[in-house]
Amino acid sequence: MSIDEPQHPSMDVDVPAVGHHPVDDEIVFRTPVRRLQPPQVADERESLEGWLDYFRAQVVLSLDGLPHRALRRRVPDSGASLVGIVRLLTDLERTWLVERWGERGGRAAYTFSYVDDTDAPFRFSELDDPGALIGAYQEVCEKGRDALAGAESLDDAVRDDRRGHIELRWILLHLITETARRAGQAQALREFLLATED
């Protein structure tokens, strides 16, 4: 199960408000994904991968129809933003599936992680283009699926400096838990923004 094509978000431009550049605040994000249903009858691996894809899609669907100014907005001012959630999950997917699993415990080069600074995805996201961030999230999710495709069993393990060895099953459960939590947070943010946006 995977998120449908196209891989990069399309955007519709509304009439910009006075004093705003249309590329900045007034671009409205249109999700390129369809609503998925989690697997009802499946073996363990198919079920885990299916639920992860379901929550990935829920995150992106939470952004649909909102202008960039809303996607960047932190609630409260020092709290989370929708694009910040996407950025955090991008880093999470890259760290666990692409690097630690796909490269079997090795990291080719150091990359900034939410583990180092939990506020970083939200603090820096105000400078980023939401469309590019969402496209990067979908791209890293696809790389994660490619990495999973080569796994023979959920019992396969990867070396971890802190824990010794981690099974693929643990990695998938960890990603499901975190993505589900952030999907719920994103939906709550969406509802607040829809109620307060002009």
Second CATH tier, the architecture? Up-down Bundle
Extended strand count: 4
Percent helix range: 40-55%
Q: Number of domains in the coordinates? A: 1
Full CATH superfamily name: dinb family like domain
Low-confidence stretches: 1-23, 108-112
Strand order of the largest sheet: 1-2
Shape annotation: elongated
Describe this structure in words.
The chain is mainly α and 198 residues long. It has a single domain, classed as Four Helix Bundle (Hemerythrin (Met), subunit A) (Up-down Bundle). The protein contains six helices and four strands, in the order ββαααααββα. It has a two-stranded antiparallel sheet with strand order 1-2. A two-stranded antiparallel sheet has the order 3-4. A hairpin with a 3-residue loop joins β3 and β4. The chain is elongated. 34% of the residues are buried. The model is unreliable at 1-23 and 108-112 (pLDDT under 50).
Secondary-structure topology with pairs:
Elements: E1 10-13, E2 27-30, H1 44-61, H2 68-72, H3 82-101, H4 120-124, H5 130-149, E3 157-160, E4 164-167, H6 168-196
Antiparallel strand pairs: 1-2, 3-4
Helix pairs in contact: 1-6, 3-5, 3-6
Short description:
Helices cover 49% and strands 8% of the residues. The chain is mainly α and 198 residues long.
Describe the structure using short key phrases.
disordered N terminus; mainly alpha; single chain; 198 residues; 49% helix; Four Helix Bundle (Hemerythrin (Met), subunit A); two-stranded antiparallel sheet
